[in-house]
Amino acid sequence: MTRLLIGYDGSEPARAAIAFAGSLFGAADAVVAHVHPPPPTMAAGRLARVALPDTMIAEGIAGLRRQAESEGREKTDEGVELARAAGLRAEPALRFALSPWRELRSLAEANRADVVVCGTAGEGPVGRAMLGSTASSLLHHAEIPLLVVPGGPVALDGPLVVGFDGSEGSRAALRFAAGHLTNTRLLVAHAWRSPVRHSIRGHALIGSGVSNLEDYANSIDRSRADVAGEIAQDGAALATELGLDARPLSPESGHSTWRTLLAAAQEEGAAAVLVGSRGRGAATATLLGSVTSGLVHAAALPVLVVPDR
User: Fold this and answer.
1) Under a CB-based contact definition with an 8 Å cutoff, are residues 25 and 180 in contact?
2) pLDDT tens sequence across 121-157
3) Which uninterrupted H or E stretch holds 7?
4) Structural domains in the chain plus CATH codes
5) Contact status, residue 176 vs residue 306, Cβ threshold 8 Å
6) pLDDT tens digits, one per residue of 175-195
7) Cα–Cα distance for residue pair 58/212, rounded to 1 Å
8) Is the alpha carbon torsion for 280, 282, 284, 285 positive or negative?
9) Number of H helices, E strands in the chain
């Protein structure tokens, strides 16, 4: 059974993350964690000792601690309620820390989570602390799969676009999909960029008026397109072997790989983009280093990142 660790702070993206996790993972087990800023301690009240007695300072700090605990429990209970409404078997976890992403990663390890889920582009200072830098930090220190969900409406019934380049990281992403996801409709995509149409020299060849040079330029594009199609077909074949409903896709664009994948996903009405990464964290990926970062920071569609472990 898939086990999720969901970071929740009450923001709209966090709510969207819970709803999408329910649609993607079905009746999974989930720990809904709220990481609240820690209340002040007696050490923080030393400066007030000049004007106030210790007993008054202690009473004030105790009151602030009770308030923080009450607010934290309220947020956690709210997240659990949303998770259960989304079909997840949820339980709460409340922590106090200044570094939410470290606490979430620690909770994920302690609960042996298969996936960490969080929203992105939170509103307000708390939202940005919890869901902006948190999502980015989790992304670049990912040791288990990470699902990042933006706020706003999501096509829950759409297929998933899987970035595939033949690497072990992209194959691991397909294996994860087969083992954990309830949505098994995939578009296995290998994005490519024409070296002819998007270069000055290529344009010169095409517009040279010399048929041999033009034929040569077009043959380069056809060759690249054929290779991209074969890679996408290999990925779709692997997905089919794993029991997934997959078809290949080889979009071409003059833009970066992540923009091409995102444009293809939006055109196909995809629910999310699934990408793999290699090594310790997304930043060390081959195909999917800048690709993964670009997709997550664009915050246009949910992105599921699967590290190759």
Assistant:
1) yes
2) 644 444 444 445 788 888 888 789 999 999 877 777 8
3) strand 3-7
4) 1-154 (3.40.50.620), 157-309 (3.40.50.620)
5) yes
6) 999 999 998 899 999 998 876
7) 86
8) positive
9) 10, 10
Nearest to 170 by CA among 188, 154, 152: 188
- List, in order, residues 6 or more apart from 301 with CB less than 8 Å away: 150, 154, 262, 265, 266, 270, 271, 272, 273, 295
Give the residue ranges of the chain where pLDDT is below 50: 42, 45, 48, 50-51, 122-131, 279-288
Round to whole Å and give the CA distance between 306 and 308: 6
Q: Please name which of 184, 169, 161, 176 lies closest in space to residue 2, comparing C-alpha atoms.
A: 176
pTM value is 0.82
CB neighbour list of residue 250: distance below 8 Å, 6 or more residues apart: 189, 190, 191, 192, 225, 228, 229, 231, 232
**Which residue do the tokens 């008054």 mark?**
56
